[in-house]
């Protein structure tokens, strides 16, 4: 933040990347977690700069004016002109390209933007942040699916305006984010409608619980109904951090991820175990601390410390290319990977773990 000019700003997610789709890309999720982490560290002033950038993006999209944000923007200062998306020059095609995922709107990413704005709203006497979160919420309810499976919310949209295709799968992770964000908005606004939306997302997450593996399924397939029983780490940890009646599953989940997702003295992204995922390991460290297991939390933070870069940021992974078990939405032939690069999201989650600050509640406790 200190390297940026004053005013609203989005931070680069992978600041060391100099070419291609990740260059100068400020992913909405990473910036939302960073804003919450700054609040958790007592730096509300810097957190507001990211929140203000989100509000400008709501008001000054080059096409959308319906409450949605993009998955990614160009890093740097944000002004009241159409907010720029990141992009790159392709020598082969001899034209400027934008990443279709970054141009789209994932439900989970927008829920995190809501959480960031609501965190600011709790700390600031400024109704703009709550109002901004409510504008996002109005778009998110368009993603609710009452026709397939156990309901819940679909994944959002993928691609460029004016008619990006709908993402029809549903994610345990996304619905966890939505349940927390809608519930906080209901509490802050006093509007019962948001409580109903939170209940729908919460019911979906609860339905993903699988007694056989003592774990949460990752969500559904494209039909919105068929359960995808693939196991990802964040889908195990986030429900316990976010949803009050699920924290009772904590012992079972911790035993399950220790048995199935541990790699060395950290954790992998998913059951496709290869290396340590820094961000996810920090999430487990935070959960352990909030559950009172300071010994486990301290051991995991010691593991994470080995991924600290010279500038104080943290590498996304301890290996060159960490598989997630998912494919790239922009090219389904290619695996989605986390690279050993300094990563804003990883750095923010480490700060949250060190401060014992729960991003879903804005407190140092479980819900």
List the helices and strands and how they pair.
Layout: E1 9-10, E2 25-27, H1 28-40, H2 44-59, E3 72-74, E4 76-77, E5 88-90, E6 95-97, H3 100-103, E7 105-106, H4 107-123, H5 127-140, E8 154-157, E9 166-170, H6 172-189, H7 192-207, E10 209-210, E11 215-216, E12 219-220, E13 227-228, H8 233-242, H9 250-260, E14 262-263, E15 266-267, H10 278-290, H11 294-305, E16 314-315, E17 321-328, E18 331-339, E19 342-343, H12 344-355
Antiparallel strand pairs: 1-4, 2-3, 5-6, 7-8, 8-9, 10-11, 12-13, 14-15, 16-19, 17-18
Roughly what is the average pLDDT, rounded to an integer? 97
The value of Rg in angstroms is: 19 Å
- The percent range for helix content is 40-55%
Low-confidence stretches: none
> What is the approximate shape?
globular
The largest sheet has its strands arranged as: 7-8-9
Q: What fraction of the residues are assigned to beta strands by DSSP?
A: 15-25%
Described by strand count, sense and barrel closure, the largest sheet is:
3 strands, antiparallel
How many domains? The number is 3
- Quickly count the helices: 12
Distance between the termini: 30 Å
Number of strands: 19
Decide which structural class fits the backbone: alpha+beta
Walkthrough of the structure:
This protein has 367 residues and is an alpha+beta fold. The protein folds into 3 domains: 1-104, no CATH class; 144-260, no CATH class; 265-359, no CATH class. It is 43% helix and 16% strand. It has helices at 28-40, 44-59, 100-103, 107-123, 127-140, 172-189, 192-207, 233-242, 250-260, 278-290, 294-305, 344-355, and strands at 9-10, 25-27, 72-74, 76-77, 88-90, 95-97, 105-106, 154-157, 166-170, 209-210, 215-216, 219-220, 227-228, 262-263, 266-267, 314-315, 321-328, 331-339, 342-343. The strands form 9 sheets. The chain has a 3-stranded antiparallel β-sheet with strand order 7-8-9. A two-stranded antiparallel ribbon has the order 1-4. α2 (44-59) crosses α5 and α10 packs antiparallel against α11 (294-305). The model has no long low-confidence stretch (mean pLDDT 97).
């Amino acid at each position: 933040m200190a390297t940026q000019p004053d005013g609203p700003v989005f931070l680069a997610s992978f600041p060391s990347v100099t070419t291609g789709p990740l260059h100068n890309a400020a992913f909405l999720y990473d910036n939302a977690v960073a804003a919450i982490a700054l609040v958790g560290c007592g730096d509300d002033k810097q957190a507001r700069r990211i929140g203000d950038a989100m509000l400008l993006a709501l008001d000054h999209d080059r096409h959308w004016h319906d409450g949605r944000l993009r998955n990614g923007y160009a890093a740097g200062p944000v002004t009241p002109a159409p907010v720029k998306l990141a992009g790159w020059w392709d020598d082969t095609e001899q034209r400027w390209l934008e990443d279709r995922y970054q141009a789209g709107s994932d439900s989970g990413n927008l829920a995190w933007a809501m959480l960031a704005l609501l965190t600011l709203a709790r700390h600031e006497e400024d109704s703009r942040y709550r109002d901004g979160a409510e504008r996002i919420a109005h778009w998110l309810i368009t993603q609710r699916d009452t026709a397939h499976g156990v309901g819940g919310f679909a994944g959002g949209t993928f691609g460029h305006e004016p008619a990006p295709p709908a993402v029809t799968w549903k994610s345990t992770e996304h619905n966890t984010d939505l349940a927390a964000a809608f519930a906080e908005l209901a509490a802050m606004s006093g509007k019962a409608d948001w409580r109903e939306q939170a209940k729908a997302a919460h019911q979906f997450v609860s339905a993903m619980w699988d007694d056989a593996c003592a774990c949460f399924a990752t969500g559904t397939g494209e039909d919105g109904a068929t359960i995808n029983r693939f196991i990802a780490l964040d889908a195990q940890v986030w429900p316990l951090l976010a949803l009050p009646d699920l924290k009772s599953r904590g012992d079972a989940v911790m035993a399950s991820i220790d048995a199935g997702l541990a790699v060395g003295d950290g954790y992998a992204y998913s059951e496709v175990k290869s290396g340590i995922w820094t961000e996810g390991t920090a999430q487990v460290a935070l959960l352990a601390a909030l559950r009172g297991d300071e010994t486990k939390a301290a051991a995991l933070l010691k593991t994470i410390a080995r991924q600290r870069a010279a500038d104080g940021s943290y590498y996304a992974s301890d290996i060159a290319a960490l598989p997630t078990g998912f494919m790239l939405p922009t090219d389904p032939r290619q695996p989605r990977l986390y690279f050993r690069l300094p990563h804003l999201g990883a750095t923010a989650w480490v700060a949250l773990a060190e401060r014992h600050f729960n991003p879903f509640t804005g407190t140092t406790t479980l819900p």
